[in-house]
Amino acid sequence: MKVAGVQMDITIGEPARNLAAMTSHLRETAAHGAQLTVFPECAVPGYCFSSLQEAVPFAQPIPGPATATMQAVCAELDCYTVFGMLELDGPKIYNAAVLVGPAGVIGSYRKVHLPWLGVDMFTSFGDRPFAVHAAGDLRVGMNICYDAAFPEAARSLAILGADLIVLPTNWPPGAECTAASVINARSIENAVYYLAVNRVGIERGFEFIGRSKISDPSGVTLAQTQGTGEEIIYAEVDPQKARRKHILRVPGKHEIDRLADRRPEMYGLLVEPHSLRRPGRQA
Q: What whole-number percentage of the chain has pLDDT above 90?
């Protein structure tokens, strides 16, 4: 399957304008043969809201108007897309990513790890288990931005059978090393494809750094953006390569399997509850 990542600018508080740009880009990527196109975190509403009250009017249910707009184009072009939005669920809003195909919403994800930045200062913590969804023959897992800093998130999706992990993100200055190294590390340590799609532009004083990238199950970079402007990257994804976890380098002498060689019985400390709290953050 050919996949695409759309590194684009976003206008805060103008979902109609952002969706129009996204549908235009989706037509372009589909014309270039991409069957799955990924957009940045909070691509629909923007990110740097200054309060919950300001952000709530731009949150939508899933399914909802934004997913219906993208579904219509996916149905027309017979393709799939993942994009970031704010999800409205009762009194709460979540930083969410949604996978949409020709028939509608296939699955969604609520950001589990929240930094003290932008709208994440006001959104609720993701409250659903990690999950993998089918986009045609491709098994897709979703994380969002800061989740990439926690290897447990990608490992959970790998255990669930993901071929490709997508990371809609809003990397600001300070995330350069994440873009340079972490994406490839998540690929190789889980033997999966990993596609991180950042935004660009300046929003309320934050200049986003771009540096979108896709790497393969051996950690090799397949494509990456070259600057901080709008750009689209493409790569071919072979699900069977991601499913071959048993890697035979020298028969009988050098074999690895990054899932089978795990020692979960030694990892109890990782799932012990902790009492650390960031000032100002609700539990």
A: 95
In a domain, 261, yes or no: no
CATH no. for residue 167?
3.60.110.10
Q: Of the residues 48, 74, 79, 145, which is catalytic?
A: 145
CB 165 within 8 A of CB 189: no
Per-residue model confidence (pLDDT) at position 200: 98
Q: Is residue 252 part of a domain?
A: no
Look at residue 222 and tell me if it is in a domain. yes
Q: Is 87 assigned a catalytic role?
A: no
This prediction's pTM: 0.96
Of the residues 74, 79, 87, 111, only one is catalytic, namely: 111
Give 94's strand partners.
87
Q: Average pLDDT for residues 166-194, to the nearest whole number?
A: 96
CA distance 58 to 13: 7
Q: To 5 degrees, how large is the angle CA 20–CA 22–CA 25?
A: 110
Model confidence at 283, in pLDDT bands (50, 70, 90)?
very low
Backbone phi and psi for residue 219, each to the nearest 5 degrees, phi listed first: 90, 5
Range of the domain at 137: 2-246
The count of structural domains within the chain is: 1
Active site residue 245: no
Task: For residue 73, tell me if it sits in a domain.
Answer: yes
Active site residue 41: yes
Average pLDDT, the chain: 96
Residues 126 and 196: their CA atoms lie apart, in Å, by 19
Q: What is the distance between the alpha carbons of residues 35 and 135, in angstroms, rounded to a whole number?
A: 9
> Given 41, 48, 87, 213, which residue is catalytic?
41
Give me the mean pLDDT over the 62-86 stretch.
98
